[in-house]
TrEMBL record, chains A, B:
GO terms for molecular function: magnesium ion transmembrane transporter activity; metal ion binding. It is found in: Cell membrane; Membrane. The keyword Iron does not apply. This is Magnesium transporter MgtE. One of its GO terms (cellular component) is plasma membrane. NCBIfam families: mgtE. The keyword Calcium does not apply. Keywords: CBS domain, Cell membrane, Magnesium, Membrane, Metal-binding, Transmembrane, Transmembrane helix, Transport.
Amino acid sequence: MTDLREPEHDIRDDDEGLSKETFENVTKAIDADDGQRLDTLLEPMHAADVADLIEQLTPVRRRAFLDLYSGEIDGDILSEIDESIRDEVVEQLPHDVLADAVREMDTDDVVDLIEDLEEPEQQVVLAALDDSDRAAVEQSLTYPEYSAGRLMQSETVTAPEHWTVGETIDFLRQEDWLPDQFYHVILVDPRRHPTGYVTLGKLLSSRRNVPLRDICEDSFRTIPAREDEGEVAYVFNKYHLISAPVVDDDDRLVGVITIDDAMSVLDEEHEEDFLRMARVSDESHVSDGPFQTARQRLPWLVINLFTASLSALVISLFEGTVERLVILAALMPIVASTGGIAGTQSLAVAVRALATRELTSANARRVIVRELFAGMLNGLGLAVLLGLAGTFILGSPGIGLVLGMAMIANQIVAAMGGVLVPLTLSRLGLDPALASGTFVTTMTDVMGFFAFLGLASWILL
Amino acid sequence: MTDLREPEHDIRDDDEGLSKETFENVTKAIDADDGQRLDTLLEPMHAADVADLIEQLTPVRRRAFLDLYSGEIDGDILSEIDESIRDEVVEQLPHDVLADAVREMDTDDVVDLIEDLEEPEQQVVLAALDDSDRAAVEQSLTYPEYSAGRLMQSETVTAPEHWTVGETIDFLRQEDWLPDQFYHVILVDPRRHPTGYVTLGKLLSSRRNVPLRDICEDSFRTIPAREDEGEVAYVFNKYHLISAPVVDDDDRLVGVITIDDAMSVLDEEHEEDFLRMARVSDESHVSDGPFQTARQRLPWLVINLFTASLSALVISLFEGTVERLVILAALMPIVASTGGIAGTQSLAVAVRALATRELTSANARRVIVRELFAGMLNGLGLAVLLGLAGTFILGSPGIGLVLGMAMIANQIVAAMGGVLVPLTLSRLGLDPALASGTFVTTMTDVMGFFAFLGLASWILL
C-alpha cells in the first residue's frame, strides 16, 4: 500500500541521537572556548552521534572544536566520521591521539580510514599498529578498492574440523585476542581452506562432546577477496548471511565480512544510485560549501545545455509552422515533458531491476515487450484526454488529434528508451544509473517536439 | 571517486544464483510436464534462488510450475517469495503444504506472510500454528503495519540479571526451542524489562563463574514496538546493532529484531524512495504485466498533463512576442530544461539528507543559503556560456543576454525549490520523495518560460 505519511522522514528534534538543543549547546561551548563544558556535553553521547555533530558543524567551528576536543577523539568516533571530512579531521589530530585511536580499531576500520588519507598520515597510522595488525592492513590494501578484501576484518575465529564443542569453548576461553564481534566459528582444514561454519548459538546450546561437523550450517558460502563490495552486499541481503569467510585466489581463509559492514555498503550503493539518477555526484554532502556544490553539479548542467540545443535545433526546423500557428509554441512542451516523465518511470524500474538481478537476459525480451505495450496503452489514454481537451477547450479537433498522435509516439519512445538504454549501458559494463537519464530525456524531448511539430505541419497547415 | 564501471550492475549469467541455463532448463521441464526433472534441477538450489525463479516465470508457467512442484514449497521458499506474487502462490498451494510450510517459519516470517493474505488463507495459516506461535503472531498483528512489532520475532533468549556464564550455558543446553538465529542473551528483571545484553562471543569466551552483569555490552538500546520500521533500519545502520530487544508500551520485552530483517527494510525503503522520486509506485515489479504497469504509471502522467498545461498557459501569454520573433520558441526549452535538471539535483541531495537526518532544523538555514549561492554561481556560469553562444552562434548579443538572465533567475528558483519543497513536505509529515519532483519541475518550467519570454518582450522588442 502506498503510505503517504512517512514519519521516518520528518525533521525530528525530539529524537534520540543528536538533538537541536545539544547541537546549540555544543556550538555555544565552542564559541565560548569552553573545553570542560564540551566534555560534559559529549561524554554521554554515542560515537556515531559525536561524528554526526562534527559533520554538521561549519568548517570554522569544526576547527575550533578540534582544537578544544581532539584529545577525546577515539577509534570509535574516527571510524564513524564521514569520508567527506575525515582527512580534514585527521590532519588536525595530534599524532599521538591518532595513534591511540587506530590501535583500538578493527583492521577493517583502519583500512577504511587509511584509504582516504594522505601519505604522511598513512605512515602515522601504520606506525601506530602492532606488527600483526599492520601486516593485516597492508594485506587488505593489496586488494582493489571497493573489493571484499578491503571490507573484511582479518581477525577470524577458526577451529579444526575434527574439534568438539567442548574443545572449541575451552579454546575460546583461553584466547585473549578475540574480535569485538563474531558470530560464527569457521571450520578450516589443515591448509586453512574454510569448509563450513557453526553459529555461536548452536555452539552454546550443544553438549560438549558433540563434534563441530555435526552442527555445521547447511548453507555455506565463501566470498572471493576480489569480489566487488556491491556484490557482497547483494549476497548478504539475498541469502540472509550474518558473516561470511573471505578467501584468497587459492581459496584460503584471509578474513571475514560481517553483516553490519555489508549493510553500510548496501546503504552507500543505494545512495549512489539515487544521486546518480538525479545527476548528482555521490560525493555530495550536506556539509559542502556553495562553491563545492556548484562545481559538483555544473558538468551535468552544461551537458544539458548541449542536449537542449538539440531540441532547439529540431524546433527551429519548424519555425515556419510555428510562425503560422503560434499556439503550437505554447502546446509543444506538453508532449515533450510528459514523455520525459514516462521515460524516467520506465528507466527507474529498469535500473532497480538490473541492480537486484530481477532483469536478466532471461527475461529482458519479455520486459521490453511489456514496456512497449504499457507505453502504447498510456499513450492512448493520454491521447484521448488531449483529443478531448483540444476539441472542447481549444475548440480545435485538429490540434487535439495532433497532440494525441504525438503523445502516443512519444510514450512509446519513452517506454522503450527507458528500458533499452540502461540494458545497453549495463551490457557495456557501465553503470546504468549514471548516464541513462540524459539519454532518455534527450530522446523524449527531441521526439516530443519533432512528432508534435511534424504532425502539425502535415495535418494542420 | 566516481567509478564509471560498476560490475555489480552487469547482467551476469555466469553468476552464482539463478543462471540463464538453469532458468531455461526449468522452463523446458515445466513445458514438458516433467516433475521429476524439476525436482532434480531445483534440489541443489538455495530457497532464495527458487523464489527468484518463481518470480521470473510468466504467470501461465508459474501456475504450471506450482501444479508440478507445490508439494516441495517449504517455509524457506515461501518467506523468500516477493509480496507481489505471494498471494497468487499461496492460493495455489494445497492446504496441508501451506500448513507444513508455516510451521517451520519463525513468527516474524509468518507475520510478514499473513499480512498480505486473504481471510481464508489467513485462517489456514493460523490454524496450522501451535498455540504459542499463534498467540505470538496474533500479538504482532495488533501493532501497526510497518512497525517494529510486525518486524520482530517473538522468540527471545533471556536470562535473569543475576545469572553467571555457567548457569546461562547450562540453561541454553537444556532448551530445545531456541530460535534458528540469535546473537545476544537479553538480561531481564523479574518484570521482564530488558536491562542489558551479552553477546554470544563474550559468553563463549568468559569463564563459567563470571556474572553476566560484568560482560554486558556498554551500549544498549531497546526499540518501542510501535516504532516505524524505517526508523528501526536507520538505528541499526547508524549504531551497528546486530539485534535489539523490542518492548511494549510498559517497556516489557515482547520480541527481538535481528539485523538481517533491518537490512531488508533498509533495502526496501531505499527502493521506495528511488522509485517515488521517478514517480513510480513502489509496487512496481518486473513480473507485472503491461496493463498493471500502465495503470501504475498513468496517474503521474495525467498530473503532468495538468502541470504542463500551466507552462502552456504562461507561454500563451507571450504569443505576440513569439509571433514577432519565432526563434524564441526554439530557444525557450533550454532555460526550462536546464532548470529542471538543477532542481532535481538540489532536490535529490535534500531528500537523501532528510532521510539520513543530515538535514535537520539545526542546519536547514545554512543549507538553504548554500543552495541559493550555488544556484547563483551555476546560473552565472551557464549565463556566460549562453551569452557567448547567443553572440557568436546566433549573432545576437541581445538573445544571449536574455537567455543568460533568464537562466540565472531559473537556476536560483531551481536550487531554492529543490530544498524548500522537500523541507516543507517533511514538516507537514509527508514523504518528500513522493511529490517534490512534480512541484519543483513545475516551478522551473513555469519560471523558465516566464523569465525567458518576459525578458525577451522587454529587451528584444
